[in-house]
Amino acid sequence: MSRSLKKGPYVDERVLRKLKNLKPGDKAIIKTWARSCAISPEMIGFTFGVHNGKEHVPVHITEDMVGHRLGEFSSTTKFGRHGGRMQKDIETKEAGKETQSIKIEQKE
User: Fold this and answer.
1) What is the pTM of this model?
2) DSSP assignment, residue 43?
């Protein structure tokens, strides 16, 4: 459910305080745990380190991101792979291609 229009978007006060101290051209990464914070136009050009539960993922803010949340650009889960026979076949083919390319490079 979206936030009420009369309330406006939620922007964390600590993030705004950190923004005031920096200039748009700075390369500094602003670390934040506020994944639910909405991206506002003042944030364009800055790089945020959005926490995903383990580490801070760097997210450079552009115009297209305004209105979204910071957490949308920092995934909290890591996709491993699908299991089963089909996946094993794919992996063995890829491993075979790699070994063939290495052998060809060694001959040259």
Assistant:
1) 0.69
2) G
